[in-house]
Amino acid sequence: MNKPTTSSNAAGRVIIISGPSGSGKTTLHKALLEGPGLKGKLVKSISATTRPKRPGERQGKDYLFITPAMFESRIAKGYFLEWEKVFDHYYGTPKRQVLNLLKKGKHVLMCIDVKGARRIRKEFPNAASIFIKTPTMAILQNRLRQRASDPHESLQLRLNVAREELREAKHYDRVVVNGRLDKACRDLNAVVGQALGLDGG
Ligand code: 5GP
Questions:
Q1: In which domain, by residue range, is 88 found?
Q2: Atom 24, ligand 1: which residue's CA is nearest?
Q3: DSSP 105-117
């Protein structure tokens, strides 16, 4: 059993964002990090992953892309706060990076799957968690169809995983519905600002 590393005496707060593939969480979290009220205060934790880099992704910025052997050795060394296998690839949140940021008073944004989110909530009981979803399943399906990345990962698999993930939404502090992107951006900004006590400031 993992003893909570706890953030109780850390100045920063953990913000968790989850949502099914196709919910728009990547676009939304990037906009959030650049938002006027949060820029520089909220820093994304860079996960390690064994999945192949997609076009436009940068090593060390979007993810730390490493081999399965490296990932497994890091698991053994206790490098991760949590790790999961998602769509057959490893993903993990680096412990030292997160703790250092929190110690420096930065708020840390984690964009992780629902299982990882459960682990992080245990570890950081005062984390604020936000679930992003589309207004309907049909919209999610359309968005996934339009997305040409990861040709090997079938639409059906992503939809099945999405259904399972949606069941977890009730465990999150807030749900943001991503129908129109500009509205969802504003909603997410407001929710996070509120969680960090920055609203109105
Ligand atoms: P993608 O490959 O599309 O970037 O991410 C696939 C899924 O893995 C998404 O749900 C994403 O939030 C999740 N994910 C990314 N990094 C981590 C991590 O460090 N830990 C966990 N548990 N999930 C992650």
A1: 14-195
A2: 112
A3: T-EEEEE--HHHH
